Amino acid sequence: MERRHHALSSEGISQCLKLLSDPTRLLMLKLLKDKEYCVCELTAIFDISQPGISQHLRKLKNAGLVRERREGQWRYYAIHPSGPEYALVCSILQQIDEKDEVLQTLRQKEVIVTCR
């Protein structure tokens, strides 16, 4: 199925780029593009406090870049595939080399994290 491209305003693109200019949020989106994560998993992967991770996720959610799913006391996040900025975000995320040292370190941490 071909995805329709939605033209964004200069303000929309600027706001999206501001959000992605933070390395934590950028790499968080890179991970969330492939898989859904619980807040506790992201806390362990990024070695950031729960309030810190929640603040990043709140900004991404408010911008429509991630979606939230609740399951009991747990909250799971994934990239929002139908947001207007989706194509822009995916284009940027594709530029991150899979061999990036920081990304590889984060992916290694995710293997040992479980909160269920």
UniProtKB/TrEMBL annotation:
It comes from the Bacteria. The keyword Metal-binding does not apply. Signal peptide: none annotated. PROSITE patterns: HTH_ARSR_2. It holds the Pfam family HTH_5. One of its GO terms (molecular function) is DNA binding. Keywords: DNA-binding, Transcription, Transcription regulation. InterPro entries: ArsR-like_HTH, HTH_ArsR_DNA-bd_dom, HTH_MetalResp_TranReg, WH-like_DNA-bd_sf, WH_DNA-bd_sf. The keyword DNA-binding applies. Residues 5-104 form the HTH arsR-type domain. PANTHER family: ARSENICAL RESISTANCE OPERON REPRESSOR, TRANSCRIPTIONAL REGULATOR, ARSR FAMILY. This is Winged helix-turn-helix transcriptional regulator.
